[in-house]
Design goal:
alpha/beta, Rossmann fold, 5-stranded parallel sheet, two-stranded parallel ribbon, globular
Length: about 160
Amino acid sequence: MKSSLQNLVSRIIFGGQSGADRIALDWAIHNNVPHGGWCPRGRKAEDGPLDAKYLLQETKSAGYLQRTRQNVVDSDGTLIVNLGKLEGGTLATAKLAQKLGKPYIVLTLDSGVGAEEVKQLLDWLRRESISTLNVAGPRESKRPGIYSLTNALLDSAAKAA
């Protein structure tokens, strides 16, 4: 069954880290949305190598920066889902998108997922004509709950699209 979010987005890409990236991968697979993206050499993630079910290409580097850059470059825009202050790799993703002149949106879900966050996301997807969406955010160990909040955001956006 085709997700109604696919009326706006034809493909979702990510880096595969635990947290926001991983649920976006799991969500895409569950909802039959084409997915892909780049991950570090060795399919590196904080919780061990990524399962082969995730259709990701490995970068030459085992570090995260090359993966992040390639996913920003290969997408039409980046959705950054966050809790609290932007920092670390999540902040680096926003700065990289800005530097490369690529559209991005930061949704901070400290108060949960509500109609306003869903509207902001859908309006942005339409305004920027995002076909290939990069989903990024912090790892679960740094922002506990980001996995379930990102899932709720994607589910709500799919129902509202």
